[in-house]
């Protein structure tokens, strides 16, 4: 399998295609820390070889710090209502073999993950890591940087 991916301000999958706004960046500029970024999206196409169709696959997206630690991408309430960090997202997908698929042809699955209100406590380098079936297939670098204030 192989993957193509990008960062965008917003993205969604409609009828098997990715529609995005503000795509193709790798830096978030903030005025001060801590900072919350309103919205970002990670969009990806997973190219599934013919031999891997008709099988279930697990897709996972995580954000890592520059030293390889998982960084929380959000929060959700546990059973007791306490806020718990979300450290990844993903799910299961299966692509079939339609009648028109020729032996050896690949299938393409499109995904878009939207992350709202991600918080950053300091500047740094991060990587969005996309894995399928536990194997890393894509890594998107992303820098969070403070804007330098100009003196008047």
The total count of helices amounts to 0
Q: What best-fitting shape do the alpha-carbon axes yield?
A: elongated
Series of secondary-structure elements, N-terminal to C-terminal = EEEEEEEEEEEE
* Major sheet size, sense and barrel closure: 5 strands, mixed
- Strand content range: over 45%
**Tally of strands:** 12
Radius of gyration: 18 Å
Task: Determine the structural class based on helices, strands and strand pairing.
Answer: mainly beta
- Sheet with the most strands: spatial strand order: 4-12-11-6-9
Approximately how much helix is present in the residues?
under 10%
Describe this structure in words.
This protein is mainly beta. It is 0% helix and 62% strand. The chain contains no helices and 12 strands. Strands 4-12-11-6-9 form a 5-stranded mixed sheet, with no helix packed on it. Strand 11 and strand 12 form a beta hairpin. It starts with a strand and ends in a 6-residue tail after the last strand. The model has no long low-confidence stretch (mean pLDDT 95).
Offer a quick outline of the entry:
The protein is mainly beta.
Topology of helices and strands:
Layout: E1 2-8, E2 10-14, E3 17-21, E4 27-30, E5 35-48, E6 56-65, E7 74-77, E8 83-86, E9 89-94, E10 107-120, E11 124-132, E12 135-146
Parallel strand pairs: 4-12
Antiparallel strand pairs: 1-5, 2-3, 5-10, 6-9, 6-11, 7-8, 11-12
